[in-house]
Amino acid sequence: MQPLEMEMRQWAEMHQVPILASASADYLAALVAEKKPRQILEIGCAIGYSALLIAQHCAVDGKITTLELDPKRITIAKDFIARAKQTERIEIIQGDATALISTLSGPYDFVFLDGPKGQYLRQLQQLLPDKLAQNATIVADNVAFRGMVGGAVPCLPRYKTLVARLRQYIEFVSTDPRFSTKIITEADHLAISDYTKEL
Question: Which residues have CB under 8 Å from 169's CB, separation 6+?
Fold first, then answer.
């Protein structure tokens, strides 16, 4: 683990900011290194951990647009990104992703969904079809949500809507013929969906 990465993990733990689990980070890094995307969209920047991870492994000329609602987190993320010397490759846009998506140009060949989990399906549908490139890859983090989505853990009442929407997301990317989806259980249940645009 690189010193800056270790510092970011420690900062996130100290300040109780959720970032990508270690196993998921390893899998995401390997996937990005394989795909070598150039136009990347991340929803949910937090402190910039996953954006920097993607920047390390994407195409040399890759550009990352990341959306984040919390201005305080953006300030922290910008500091880490500057220290990693990735400011020119990572653009942070502040605001509600569901409102911002329509303003983006795209098309993106890699999308990482890591914002509010109850919005995954809505945000993916907003990206269809014009903002996704042919053969785009969409990665959604932690679709099992603490075991509640699959029923391994009883769903707490306050998470009922979120869990229902994650089930709808999984159903959509598993049955829509434009997507081929697998869920990586050992990597905190990352849902990896390969998209084929209708021609």
Answer: 120, 121, 124, 140, 143, 191
Q: pLDDT at residue 123 above 60? A: yes
The whole-angstrom separation of Cα 189 and Cα 191 is 6
Q: Is the pTM of this model over 0.85?
A: yes
- CB of 29 closer than 8 Å to CB of 57: yes
CB 84 within 8 A of CB 4: yes
163-166, long-range: CB < 8 A, 24+ apart: 165/117, 165/118, 165/119, 165/120, 165/121, 166/117, 166/118, 166/120
Task: Round to whole Å and give the CA distance between 160 and 162.
Answer: 6
pLDDT score for 199: 54
Of 85, 38, 36, residue with least CA distance to 57: 36
Q: Which of 197, 143, 141 is nearest to 170 (CA)?
A: 143
Structural contact between residues 198 and 178, judged by C-beta atoms closer than 8 angstroms: yes
pLDDT tens per residue, range 144-159: 877 777 767 787 888 8
